DNA sequence: TTGAAAGCGGTACCAT
DNA sequence: ATGGTACCGCTTTCAA
């Protein structure tokens, strides 16, 4: 009803260049065609197919008309007509988390390079919400759906998610996951285990013997993988299990803080290095140590994981494992677009040794407490 | 061509519930209608208008059929038919920047609360790119376009942007800007000037007399406003211009680092407090000071702006001005949806005094260099 | 209450 | 090279 009233049928009213009229309806391709005195079909060709099969004179007239009228093609209409859109749908657990915003940045880069726009939705770390989002997103018929988020063990929901994605793919959709491998779809995986392992070996080589390992809930695969990788690295370096203390806590800064407090309370007992499975947690650890009168890096070494930007700004600078999140994002788009069925791409990590783990640890036989 | 081959015209083939077939076409409303033995129109009503005018028996059959078939409405088709979409388009300068990702989080919250999905695009801090994006976005006919980013003075592009947004609004679109006021559209503004002014007054009250102010390029309004606000606060507190040193640099961490180096090199000359117009810069300043053998907070006080999360994790904890970015985001959506034409909403800020500006400054007359 | 049919803004095939 | 037109999937009159 809104589209019929104020528009001329076929040049009945003289065309006017003025934009001043308060006409509430946007310019359509038909308007452009009329203005350029060509058919709808020709206008479409002129605007899309380059110069393919349109006399340049006509093409110019169409282009001019479009510009004059301020024509912007209706993406939805194009999508319905073509049966496909030019978008990539991204589901992240949390935008405000630098981890995911870095991934989002990578995806946005890659998408724009391919002429796609990104639609982003936030699952709030809930598998349930994630599922709902994917379901809704399917309705937008995006070219690609990318889901970024650590798998959280939750059988039923996971199965439904797999169904949903499978249906999506069955109808020609493309997908990529950024998380742990295990789901039957193309997956970009950060090599958490190997990164943690390398870190552990490096620390062992630097002379550290007694460790505390602070990790998050085991349901969170990212945490678990890093934890396991680290202990694997220690084992390979000949560090006994009795020289490893584990604390499980929240996967957050305050989780790290609390764990470190607990550690200090019960007595450090010769622990030389505290490894927290994320930088955020590690920073909490450092603050807790300092609050307890201990100097991180001198009294106890601290290491983290992620290499978030503030890792180099805390004091002492934090030893950590760099995760190229942005690359993970671009890689996900590449993978989804490629025809590699169900491939898993591992993104390598890099260890950065900094001041929080000085080369020479506090020598070896210090059975009771830190240096005071 | 892909849509015609494998689908039955009107129940010629018996319907099957199996999903195993490799049929590359998705389920349409027509399929659901046929399956439920009602007309297209009735199916549409059943799925949309609640129970309005559909016999409950039929409605149930439609719903069942839809569920059985895994029907997901085609958002693009709905959009073309209805002439409007259920999306809010967000243009940010940089997702990876916590400043914008916090805003994005707020917008996402508000959008989802209103049943809208967010499409996010990144302008890379380029006004030109921003303009192109808005132009492209218009094609998606979003309900709302939100642009988040400090205005950058650039006359021509700005004018074009205004045109583009005006056309968008003329065709029924809604907009909100998160930036400085000045453009003829509803705007959410962080009260940078007032925040900086309050900070300055607080610091003056704490006893600081001699200041260095490190800011970014004047083109960036956010920087300029904070700078001006700070000096206004100093002036109001009776601090003379001769007690204020200005350094202009990049609006980044390394900009802050460099500026602090310069400051140290030329001799601190009694400067008691360094104010950097963003936390990121302030953190660069702190690292530079430390690298130069000075202890931030003891030898020179440091203050920033934004209250990014790492502000409390650096040592000493950084005095700064909190900006409720997430609220700015939600407010923008609210504003766009409301019918307040061209209103400007100011978001208030909060000063947090921390260890980087201890109460008692290093007394007064120390004309040459820092304490050594 | 229901179904037929006319759009929505485009795309792409088919003649000419 | 160009125009006519069927069609994309869905919404919404308009009669029945």
UniProtKB/TrEMBL annotation, chains A, B:
<dbReference type="Pfam" id="PF13377">
    <property type="entry name" value="Peripla_BP_3"/>
</dbReference>
<feature type="region of interest" description="Disordered">
    <location>
        <begin position="353"/>
        <end position="372"/>
    </location>
</feature>
<feature type="region of interest" description="Disordered">
    <location>
        <begin position="1"/>
        <end position="24"/>
    </location>
</feature>
<feature type="compositionally biased region" description="Low complexity">
    <location>
        <begin position="354"/>
        <end position="372"/>
    </location>
</feature>
<dbReference type="GO" id="GO:0003677">
    <property type="term" value="F:DNA binding"/>
</dbReference>
<protein>
    <submittedName>
        <fullName>LacI family DNA-binding transcriptional regulator</fullName>
    </submittedName>
</protein>
<keyword id="KW-0805">Transcription regulation</keyword>
<dbReference type="InterPro" id="IPR046335">
    <property type="entry name" value="LacI/GalR-like_sensor"/>
</dbReference>
<dbReference type="InterPro" id="IPR028082">
    <property type="entry name" value="Peripla_BP_I"/>
</dbReference>
<keyword id="KW-0804">Transcription</keyword>
<dbReference type="Pfam" id="PF00356">
    <property type="entry name" value="LacI"/>
</dbReference>
<dbReference type="InterPro" id="IPR010982">
    <property type="entry name" value="Lambda_DNA-bd_dom_sf"/>
</dbReference>
<feature type="domain" description="HTH lacI-type">
    <location>
        <begin position="27"/>
        <end position="82"/>
    </location>
</feature>
<dbReference type="InterPro" id="IPR000843">
    <property type="entry name" value="HTH_LacI"/>
</dbReference>
<keyword id="KW-0238">DNA-binding</keyword>
């Amino acid at each position: 009803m809104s589209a019929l009233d104020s528009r001329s049928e076929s040049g009945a009213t003289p065309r006017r260049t003025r934009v001043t009229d308060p006409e509430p309806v946007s310019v359509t391709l038909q308007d452009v065609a009329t203005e350029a005195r060509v058919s709808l079909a020709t206008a479409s060709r002129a605007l899309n197919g380059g110069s393919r099969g349109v006399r340049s004179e006509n093409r110019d007239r169409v282009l001019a008309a479009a510009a004059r009228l301020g024509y912007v093609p209706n993406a939805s209409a194009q999508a319905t007509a073509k049966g496909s859109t030019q978008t990539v749908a991204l589901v992240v657990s949390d935008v405000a988390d630098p981890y995911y915003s870095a991934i989002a940045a990578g995806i946005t880069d890659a998408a724009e390079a391919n002429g796609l726009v990104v639609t982003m939705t936030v699952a709030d770390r809930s598998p349930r919400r994630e599922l709902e989002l994917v379901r809704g997103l399917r309705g937008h018929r995006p070219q690609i759906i990318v889901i970024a988020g650590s798998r959280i063990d939750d059988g039923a929901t996971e199965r439904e998610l797999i169904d949903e994605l499978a249906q999506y793919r069955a109808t020609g959709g493309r997908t990529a996951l950024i998380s742990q491998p295990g789901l039957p779809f193309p997956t970009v995986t950060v090599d958490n285990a190997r990164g943690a392992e390398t870190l552990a070996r490096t620390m062992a080589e630097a002379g550290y013997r007694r460790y505390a390992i602070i990790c998050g809930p085991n349901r969170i695969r990212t945490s678990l993988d890093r934890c396991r990788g680290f202990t694997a690295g220690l084992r390979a370096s000949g560090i006994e299990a009795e020289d490893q203390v584990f604390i499980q806590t929240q996967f957050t800064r305050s989780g790290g803080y609390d764990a470190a407090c607990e550690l200090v309370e019960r007595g450090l007992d010769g622990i030389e290095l505290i490894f927290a499975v994320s930088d955020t947690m590690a920073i909490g650890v450092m603050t807790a140590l300092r609050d307890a009168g201990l100097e991180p890096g001198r009294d106890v070494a601290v290491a983290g994981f992620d290499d978030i930007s503030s890792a180099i700004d805390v004091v002492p600078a934090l030893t950590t494992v760099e995760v190229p999140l942005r690359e993970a994002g671009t890689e996900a788009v590449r993978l989804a677009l490629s025809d590699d069925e169900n491939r898993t791409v591992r993104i390598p990590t890099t260890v950065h040794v900094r001041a929080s783990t000085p080369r020479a640890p506090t020598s070896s036989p210090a059975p009771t407490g830190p240096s005071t």
